[in-house]
Design brief:
The chain is about 50% helix and about 15% strand. With about 270 residues, the chain is of the alpha/beta class. It is built from twelve helices and nine strands. Strand 6, helix 8 and strand 7 form a beta-alpha-beta unit. Helix 2 crosses helix 4 and helix 5 packs across helix 6. It has a single domain, classed as Aldolase class I (TIM Barrel), CATH 3.20.20.70. About 50% of the residues are buried.
Length: about 270
């Protein structure tokens, strides 16, 4: 089996002492065509991995900014098949940047786990994060993804106990996503010392890279998190750029903003390779 693009990306970045930059956008906001342009602009701006949101009507982890993006995408008729079509179109011109789908169980189960896994592999998806699949209930799904070379990715929260981190470690591939605060996406009360403590705890159980998201809104917060994490994940702040002007300029705004974060991360001293 070929090396997963996620693994290859983190290996390259670790060797260079760099932190991965992972932006999130919602597919279909402001349109499917615009999403493809935004993805390409994010890569040009320095994104290492892209998390591509599957719009869903009843989210539990997404704050108001991403909820609005999902509502706009659903109003445009965007479904899981469309998300996979966007990935296929992206792969026509980009064979290297990893794509992680992030969403909820209902659309996947409606398609069927095996059917989804096959279609995701064929489209060029590298990882899947399902917010409402806890590790205790995700064994079969993780196995189906893993057999197809797709990384099952899991969330770890500030309240996650160590036995559950062990359960995540047994199933996870690619990277683990640490939710940096109690609450929803877009909240703004980061406690960097607590993030550092929890990331260190996660690393005692999980050998994969640890990405940190929720609440990272600017260069300063990105640098503060990057000092402790292998990846910085940013979603709500990018969507605010997308919704903050006409759709025709969404890609340019998103790409320009993510480039400021890339420069901030690259201005930090290189990390020592493990």
């Amino acid at each position: 089996m070929a090396t997963n693009r996620i693994d290859a990306t983190f290996t390259r970045l670790r060797a260079a002492g760099r932190t991965a930059l992972i932006p999130y956008v919602t597919t279909g906001d402001p349109s499917l065509e615009a999403t493809l342009d935004v993805m390409r602009a994010l890569v040009m701006g320095g994104a290492d991995v892209i998390e591509l949101g599957v719009p869903f009507s009843d989210p539990m982890a997404d704050g108001p900014v991403i909820q609005r993006a999902s509502e706009r995408a659903l109003a445009n008729g965007t479904g899981l098949k469309d998300v996979l079509a966007v990935v296929r179109a992206f792969r026509d011109r980009n064979a290297t940047t990893p794509i992680v789908l992030m969403g909820y169980a209902n659309p996947i189960e409606a398609m069927g786990l095996g059917v989804f896994a096959d279609r995701a592999r064929d489209a060029g998806v590298d990882g899947v994060l399902v917010v409402d699949y806890p590790p205790e209930e995700a064994g079969d799904f993780a196995k189906q993804l893993d057999e197809r070379g797709i990384a099952p990715i899991f969330l770890v929260a500030p309240t996650t106990p160590e036995p559950r981190i062990d359960a995540v470690a047994a199933l996870a591939r690619g990277y683990v996503y640490y939710v940096s605060l109690k609450g929803v996406t877009g909240a703004g009360h980061l406690d960097t010392a607590e993030v550092a403590r929890k990331v260190a705890e996660i690393r005692r159980h999980v050998k994969l890279p640890v990405g940190v998201g929720f609440g990272i809104r600017d260069a300063a917060s990105a640098q503060a998190i990057a000092a402790h994490a292998d990846a910085v994940v940013i979603g709500s702040r990018i969507i605010q750029e997308i919704e903050g002007g006409p759709p025709s300029g969404a890609a340019e705004r998103a790409g320009a903003w993510i480039a400021t974060i890339r420069r901030a991360l690259d201005d930090m001293p290189a990390k020592q390779a493990a």
